[in-house]
Amino acid sequence: MALPKRIIKETERLVAEPVPGIEAVPHEDNLRYFDVSIHGPAQSPYEGGVFKLELFLPEDYPMTPPKIRFLTKIYHPNIDRLGRICLDVLKANWSPALQIRTILLSIQALLGAPNPDDPLANDVAQRWKEDEPGAIATAREWTQKHAAP
Amino acid sequence: MATYEDDHNLPASSTSQKTAYRRPRPDLSHFFSSLSINQSSTTLPSTPQQPIPQVPSEAFTNLARAWQESLEGHEIIESLIEQLFEEGKEGKGGKGVSQEFLDGLERIPKKELVEADICPICNTPFLLDEYPLVVRLPCHKSHVFDLECISPWLKLHTTCPLDRIDIAKKKTPPPPPVDEEEEEWDDNYG
Question: Tell me: the pLDDT tens digits for B141-151?
Fold first, then answer.
């Protein structure tokens, strides 16, 4: 099936007007598959890190959300050890009016505002609640260790 | 109608070779036909209309079947297939609106559209289409979409893509310009 016009337009705009701190580059041989990197937001434990993600647009995109996961290890209550992300707009709250760029912005925002009450990584979330300074220190360590640019 | 070969300036025989390289793809025609809104444009007038499954759960089942036929021994895909079957069975997907609801959505005449108006789903200006078929959702007057873009969404969901308001909970889309006094609009609608 030909690549829908919408995907072409989104890709063009991502390249022409990139979102600050976010890069998304489609694979040459599969324009539905993107290499993404997100810079950790300032004043978060992820500051200074560059996190790699993979993003795939399924056949019925935008009727279904993009599939996206972290490739870089990250210590975050809403991201599990496989890099899967717990984010409403990637599941039940997806809307076809959302786009790749809005989703990536949401993920960047999630890094700046972890939500341990809606955890995907249970152990991390528990630690986040019981010992927040400790959890943040670990997140910072992991950022230096795994997400150094 | 021009054939594939004509379009691509190829000798007629090369098609069979080309198709031989292709990996088997699932036959999704049933799935898409169960979602498509208007078959009549593609069928000849003499052909009787094929019954289109109106229930989205049927579409899930069709999709599951299509994938099942084309794939073997792929665990992740298989689990997805099962999930689809279940959604089909449980009627979980039966959340969308009816064809009648889609047909009843307020149409926007071409003369009311301006160049800057774009469909939030395909991000294409409505007026790029010579005959734009644009509808407005009942939640807000600025929430307008190509009928072609909003239909597949509303067949599986009842929410507006822009504000997530459940439009099925509202009354049926307001009947085209009726005076405000006519309040006793009978809402027999499901």
Answer: 899 999 999 99
Angstrom distance (rounded) from CA B172 to CA B45? 31
Cis (ω within 30 of 0) for the bond into B48? no
Both tokens assigned to B21:
């390289």
**Alpha carbons A80 and A86: distance in angstroms, whole number:** 8
CA dihedral A125, A127, A128, A132 (to 10 degrees): 180
Residues of A marked active site are found at: 86
CA distances from B84 to A49, A119, B66, B76, B126 (A): 38, 26, 11, 12, 34
CA distances from A53 to A17, A39, A71, A101, B5 (A): 20, 11, 5, 13, 41
Please name the residue of chain A whose CA is at the shortest distance from the CA of residue B160.
A95
Chain B residue numbers with beta carbons less than 8 Å from the beta carbon of A5 are 122, 124
Name beta bridge partners: B138. Answer: none
CA–CA separation, A141 and A14 (whole Å):
31
Model confidence over B15-50: pLDDT tens digits? 445 445 556 666 777 767 666 555 444 444 444 555
**Structure letter (DSSP) for residue B151:** H
Look at the pTM and tell me if it is higher than 0.90.
no
ipTM score = 0.80
Alpha helices, H only, B91-156: 99-104, 147-154
Q: How far is CA B52 from CA A59, A90, B37, B89, B175, in A?
A: 22, 30, 9, 18, 26
